[in-house]
Design brief:
The protein has 128 residues and is of the alpha/beta class. The chain has three helices and six strands; from the N terminus they run ββββαβαβα. A hairpin with a 2-residue loop joins β1 and β2. The protein is globular and about 35 Å long.
Protein backbone atom coordinates (compact mmCIF):
# COMPACT_ATOMS: atom_id res chain seq x y z
CA UNK A 1 0.00 0.00 0.00
CA UNK A 2 1.20 3.54 -0.73
CA UNK A 3 0.93 6.16 2.00
CA UNK A 4 1.64 9.90 1.66
CA UNK A 5 2.91 11.80 4.69
CA UNK A 6 2.79 15.59 4.79
CA UNK A 7 6.41 16.54 5.42
CA UNK A 8 8.17 19.69 6.58
CA UNK A 9 11.85 19.54 7.49
CA UNK A 10 11.73 15.83 8.39
CA UNK A 11 8.61 16.15 10.54
CA UNK A 12 4.92 15.57 9.87
CA UNK A 13 3.52 18.87 8.68
CA UNK A 14 0.69 20.32 10.72
CA UNK A 15 -1.37 21.19 7.63
CA UNK A 16 -1.52 18.67 4.80
CA UNK A 17 -2.20 20.95 1.84
CA UNK A 18 0.42 23.53 2.77
CA UNK A 19 3.32 21.16 3.41
CA UNK A 20 6.40 21.72 1.24
CA UNK A 21 6.98 17.99 0.65
CA UNK A 22 5.27 14.62 0.68
CA UNK A 23 7.06 11.48 1.82
CA UNK A 24 5.47 8.60 -0.07
CA UNK A 25 6.16 5.12 1.21
CA UNK A 26 5.09 1.83 -0.24
CA UNK A 27 4.51 -1.02 2.18
CA UNK A 28 4.02 -4.72 1.78
CA UNK A 29 2.93 -6.37 4.99
CA UNK A 30 5.14 -4.89 7.68
CA UNK A 31 7.99 -3.91 5.35
CA UNK A 32 8.80 -0.74 3.45
CA UNK A 33 9.50 -1.62 -0.17
CA UNK A 34 9.75 1.93 -1.51
CA UNK A 35 10.21 5.49 -0.30
CA UNK A 36 10.37 8.79 -2.15
CA UNK A 37 10.12 12.44 -1.17
CA UNK A 38 8.42 14.74 -3.67
CA UNK A 39 7.61 18.44 -3.78
CA UNK A 40 4.04 19.46 -3.06
CA UNK A 41 2.79 20.40 -6.55
CA UNK A 42 0.43 23.02 -5.14
CA UNK A 43 -2.60 23.53 -2.96
CA UNK A 44 -5.66 23.95 -5.16
CA UNK A 45 -9.13 22.70 -4.18
CA UNK A 46 -9.62 19.12 -5.40
CA UNK A 47 -6.17 18.80 -7.01
CA UNK A 48 -4.23 16.82 -4.40
CA UNK A 49 -6.73 13.95 -4.08
CA UNK A 50 -6.56 13.37 -7.84
CA UNK A 51 -2.76 13.85 -8.00
CA UNK A 52 -2.06 11.43 -5.14
CA UNK A 53 -4.60 8.87 -6.34
CA UNK A 54 -2.83 8.81 -9.72
CA UNK A 55 0.38 8.04 -7.81
CA UNK A 56 -1.35 5.05 -6.20
CA UNK A 57 -1.66 6.56 -2.71
CA UNK A 58 -4.29 4.81 -0.54
CA UNK A 59 -3.78 6.71 2.75
CA UNK A 60 -2.74 10.17 3.95
CA UNK A 61 -0.96 10.97 7.22
CA UNK A 62 -0.89 14.58 8.45
CA UNK A 63 -1.25 16.78 11.46
CA UNK A 64 -4.35 18.40 10.08
CA UNK A 65 -6.56 18.84 7.06
CA UNK A 66 -9.73 20.77 6.37
CA UNK A 67 -13.05 18.97 6.41
CA UNK A 68 -13.64 19.56 2.69
CA UNK A 69 -10.27 18.04 1.82
CA UNK A 70 -11.02 15.03 4.04
CA UNK A 71 -14.32 14.59 2.19
CA UNK A 72 -12.60 14.77 -1.22
CA UNK A 73 -10.02 12.17 -0.19
CA UNK A 74 -12.80 9.94 1.15
CA UNK A 75 -14.66 10.23 -2.16
CA UNK A 76 -11.40 9.22 -3.91
CA UNK A 77 -11.10 6.11 -1.73
CA UNK A 78 -8.09 7.50 0.15
CA UNK A 79 -8.07 7.13 3.96
CA UNK A 80 -6.99 10.14 6.04
CA UNK A 81 -5.15 9.79 9.34
CA UNK A 82 -5.04 13.12 11.17
CA UNK A 83 -3.66 14.41 14.45
CA UNK A 84 -0.20 12.96 13.81
CA UNK A 85 2.95 14.76 14.96
CA UNK A 86 6.62 13.89 15.17
CA UNK A 87 9.52 12.85 12.99
CA UNK A 88 8.47 11.22 9.70
CA UNK A 89 10.78 8.22 10.22
CA UNK A 90 9.29 7.57 13.67
CA UNK A 91 5.75 7.85 12.28
CA UNK A 92 6.65 5.36 9.55
CA UNK A 93 7.90 2.91 12.21
CA UNK A 94 4.63 3.31 14.13
CA UNK A 95 2.64 2.72 10.93
CA UNK A 96 4.60 -0.43 10.09
CA UNK A 97 4.32 -1.78 13.63
CA UNK A 98 0.58 -1.08 13.76
CA UNK A 99 0.85 1.34 16.70
CA UNK A 100 0.09 4.59 14.84
CA UNK A 101 -3.05 6.18 16.27
CA UNK A 102 -4.75 9.09 14.58
CA UNK A 103 -6.96 11.61 16.24
CA UNK A 104 -8.58 14.95 15.63
CA UNK A 105 -7.25 17.20 12.89
CA UNK A 106 -4.94 19.89 14.25
CA UNK A 107 -6.66 22.42 11.96
CA UNK A 108 -9.74 24.27 13.13
CA UNK A 109 -12.92 23.59 11.15
CA UNK A 110 -13.19 26.11 8.33
CA UNK A 111 -9.65 27.39 8.89
CA UNK A 112 -8.99 27.72 5.17
CA UNK A 113 -12.48 28.81 4.13
CA UNK A 114 -12.51 32.15 2.36
CA UNK A 115 -8.76 32.52 2.36
CA UNK A 116 -7.95 30.88 -0.98
CA UNK A 117 -4.38 29.96 -1.78
CA UNK A 118 -2.98 33.10 -0.10
CA UNK A 119 -3.52 31.80 3.42
CA UNK A 120 -0.21 30.54 4.79
CA UNK A 121 -1.17 29.43 8.29
CA UNK A 122 -3.87 27.42 9.95
CA UNK A 123 -5.34 27.79 13.42
CA UNK A 124 -3.65 24.69 14.86
CA UNK A 125 -1.73 24.81 18.15
CA UNK A 126 1.70 26.40 17.89
CA UNK A 127 3.43 23.62 19.82
CA UNK A 128 2.65 21.00 17.13
Amino acid sequence: MKVAISTDNGFVSAHFGRCPLFTIIQTEGNKIIGKEVIDNPGHHPGFLPKFLKEKGVRAIIAGGMGQRAQMLFDESGIKTIMGITGAVDEVIEELISGTLKGGESLCSPGAGRGYGVNKTVCEHPEDN
